[in-house]
């Protein structure tokens, strides 16, 4: 009889629906019944258990309306700055002032230009939800925004569906523990323990998901890419006139002549240790040849 009761427990959806139906007011809550002592009545009784049996439809509707909205806000920005270090220091101070924190920071050298290293950073910022847009506005004026995306995801329905399921599972868990106390054989105990383990695992999984949603709702996330770039200065120059071009050509020619004379002088001086003796020898030889021809 215990096996039959637990099989019905695993397939029955009465208990999971009871809590939600009581919240919506679609069915009246039946009168409370005493917990059954026998395993034969387990499936029937678990379906009739109502945790909100004394609540009216109006009170349930009010409780539903007062649910806290669960909205996850996420921002993704890519911006450029001319001074990465100055930008990062200022950003760190702003995050602290908004009671946020820098969850991750991956910074690397993007490229090098002469002796300057241009940096690139991939940052993840967490700030309280109420300060999310203030942080976004600050980033937009702190650099040149290249790409921007804002996402707001409503998790209210999913959150409370999981929350209700946890409550229903906890009711089932409590009922199983009562049945465990009444078990008379080892077989009954083992069956109930297996079912308790399954339910507890499902409860823990749902609670982890709820905690994750609460964290992402309370602390918004901003994924930020920052690229350091060089400042660019553009100056427009009007087309030169004919006179200006002629003047530039004349100056260029004079400069070329001066450079040629300078190069010639440098060559003469640099070759003087060879050139001067050669000239002296040539002069002496010239006079000797001239004297020889006169004597002949």
List the main descriptive attributes of the protein structure presented here:
5 strands, 9 helices, single chain, 296 residues, elongated, alpha+beta
Element layout with pairings:
Elements: H1 2-11, H2 14-24, H3 42-48, H4 57-65, E1 71-81, H5 84-97, E2 101-113, E3 116-128, H6 132-142, E4 144-154, H7 156-182, H8 186-218, E5 219-228, H9 242-295
Parallel strand pairs: 1-5
Antiparallel strand pairs: 1-4, 2-3, 3-5
Helix pairs in contact: 1-8, 2-7, 5-6, 7-8
What can you see in these coordinates?
- This protein has helices at residues 2-11, 14-24, 42-48, 57-65, 84-97, 132-142, 156-182, 186-218, 242-295; strands at residues 71-81, 101-113, 116-128, 144-154, 219-228.
- By secondary structure, the chain is of the alpha+beta class.
- The chain has three domains: 1-66, no CATH class; 70-234, no CATH class; 249-296.
- Strand 2 and strand 3 (116-128) form a beta hairpin.
- Helix 2 crosses helix 7 and helix 7 packs antiparallel against helix 8.
